[in-house]
């Protein structure tokens, strides 16, 4: 009996200033997968060694560059990881996955988080494994190892998350190099090895309220910064002064963003950060001055501004004056020879969804 279903996963913006690796918001910009499984069309899908014919819509971000072999593409490679952990070696014959991706790659809007969440859900659905979202998060966290984007994409809304203390054996399992977790792209034979199963209940999260008047302005430069590179420029240790600076702001920000009316005098300073943004300026031309270029007094309606995820996108939270705020930031970037586009986005309150058709 042919089966078909649809998966949608939101983009996300992580950190929101002081909440490095902790805070995230799901954004209403959705990675979408249309999946059909029909053994009668197996001949069309068995060109791929794992029985999966993968296509992207032409208007997808990354259309020209993303790999289409199932053991090279992040979405299907992740799905294969979930399947193989559960003793299923490949997709059912006749699997077709069509992807529409409006999330810009490598810009700090959680494209890889969304791809990993979509891949884990894809594995769960094709393998009919019946995992809860909480267990699916464990699988995601074996691949993208910071919980902020993954949790926001899976659960939606405004979330805070952490990883529970793991036992030494669990730590060893979770720290296995990614190359040994995800199936290695190769032309060779499947080795039959079962990849490491994720420890249970790794991620803990809470969903905060969000004042729905607050909109997200994403100013997206036309260059990529890989999250790995952007984490690579961060120090190994911090002063207690800088940590206390962030902790104080984090504690205030999570409630300040729920209040009505939102208070810019509280939110703007509470979105300052000393843990990641100052170090990332080496990768993003003009970052420090861009972050101070708009304030609630110069642009009424603005609430706060920060780097989105690992950058280079800038996230401004506002209730008004969206176009002027975006234009000012784009002008600042253009002085550094960087062109940008911008999007006005609401939160994605529900997170990842599957619908059977
Ligand atoms: N929809 C997608 N399909 C395939 N690969 C993707 C997709 N989205 C993201 N990726 C992979 O993730 C990389 C970007 O990840 P990363 O550096 O973490 O940036 P981001 O901030 O966008 O998450 C891309 O270069 C690509 O390899
Ligand atoms: N906390 C992470 C978030 C990375 O987000 P992304 O959208 O850039 O993948 C970090 O700041 O490194």
TrEMBL record:
EC number: 2.7.1.39
Keywords, alphabetical: Amino-acid biosynthesis, ATP-binding, Kinase, Nucleotide-binding, Threonine biosynthesis, Transferase
UniProt GO MF annotations: ATP binding; homoserine kinase activity
Pathway: Amino-acid biosynthesis; L-threonine biosynthesis; L-threonine from L-aspartate: step 4/5
Group of enzyme by EC: transferase
Keyword Nucleotide-binding: yes
Lyase as UniProt keyword: no
Substrates-to-products reaction catalysed: L-homoserine + ATP = O-phospho-L-homoserine + ADP + H(+)
Domain GHMP kinase N-terminal: residue ranges: 73-157
Entries under Pfam families matching the protein: GHMP_kinases_N
PROSITE patterns on file: GHMP_KINASES_ATP (PS00627)
GO biological process: threonine biosynthetic process
Family to which the UniProt record says this protein belongs: Belongs to the GHMP kinase family. Homoserine kinase subfamily.
Stored NCBIfam families: thrB
Reported function: Commits homoserine to the threonine biosynthesis pathway by catalyzing its O-phosphorylation.
Name of the protein in question: Homoserine kinase
Organism of origin: Lachancea fermentati (Zygosaccharomyces fermentati)
